[in-house]
Amino acid sequence: MKFLFDDAAFSFQALRTAGHAAYAGADLGEVLAACRNIPDGDEEAWCRGWTAVAERLHRVGAEALAAGHRVSARESLLRASNYYRTADFFRVEDRDADLESARLARCSRQTFAQAAQLFDTPVVPLRIPYEDTTLPGYLFLVDDTGRSLPTVIHHGGYDSTLEELYFMAAGGALRRGYHVLAFEGPGQQSVRREQGLVFRPDWEHVVTPVVDHALTRPEVDPERLVLFGTSFGGLLAARATAFEDRFAACVLHNGVYDFYEVPLRGIPPYLGEWVTDGRDDVAGPALAVSMAQSTQARWFVRHGMWVFGAKTPPEALRACAPYNLDTAAAHITCPTLVLDAENDLAFHGEARRVHEALRCAKELMLFTVAEGAGEHCQEGAALRFHQRVFDWLDERLARA
């Protein structure tokens, strides 16, 4: 689905940002205004355009809050948070040394935290014990009664932020009577920025401490706990449920079986062989050509170097190799919903591979272009996506 840009990466990211309007994370006119003067593929202009809108709304939110207009402040700050995230998206040249990237990420976190204090329902910031440190999270509660309700544990994937998880799942879950515990793990945004922790394939060692922490909360019903993993997080969540048996259900949004095959599909077979065989003397220059020609390839590889702690582009691609469900899928026992998107070109066929490999109670749910939900992770169709997924969860948990 082309949206405002010919450049596929710009088009998808603009749609992603606009789609968060369903839960007050964007306004269509602001999206159109931000994109109007951004040339296709111009990453610096992208950052400038979105930063300008984010900073304007940040000021609007601060002024509204000072004047006692809580709803106006909350809505402005939520949109500012999403736009700061969007402004930072393509700044992947050297994130560890990029002070502007750090500032944008910090502003996105801060504006969301300010907005969360103004929600009509309780939002509890969390520091979840993990090995010798903690992981950041939010517990979004349906109400302040303390009653035990079904709870979704949600994490993102390759590039989503903790704050964005509210727009992706929590907004729809709260309306339907689900608490949501959202968190970031190693390799993900603030954990990578502030603690230097990179992704790990044995994701059950990340999820299990989160479950332990969730079950200390009286609001969490231990019999109705759901794991929800988004994008690359769909693979991570599947891996976790293979070794963590306290979930009543799992949602893979979307299903991903083998993450290494994703970048290999986008490059010539001979180049994939060079990368796999460690022939970096020829793979490195060839990848540099691909990255120069494609915004998406450039972003994927550079971001991968950051989240996996790789020093070169070939190393970043090889770092994807351990992330698959070869030894895990058959061990998943909880009922699992695998989402698929008709126009998900990067992950085409992955959801069906996951579904076929599962031996538990399972369902494959296809979202189509005709219903406006055919893009990766149903971006731009949050209401349709939430309707189908949470109706499935309602019925599954009721039967359980």
UniProtKB/TrEMBL annotation:
What's an example of a GO molecular-function annotation for this chain? Answer: hydrolase activity
Kindly indicate whether the keyword Nuclease belongs to this entry.
Answer: no
Record's keyword annotation contains Hydrolase:
yes
Keyword line? Hydrolase
Stated family: Belongs to the AB hydrolase superfamily.
**InterPro entries of this UniProt entry?**
AB_hydrolase_fold, FrsA_esterase, Peptidase_S9_cat
In what residue span(s) does the Peptidase S9 prolyl oligopeptidase catalytic domain sit?
210-265
Q: Which Gene3D superfamilies match?
A: acylaminoacyl peptidase, alpha/beta hydrolase
One of its Pfam families is: Peptidase_S9
User: What's this protein's name?
Assistant: Alpha/beta fold hydrolase
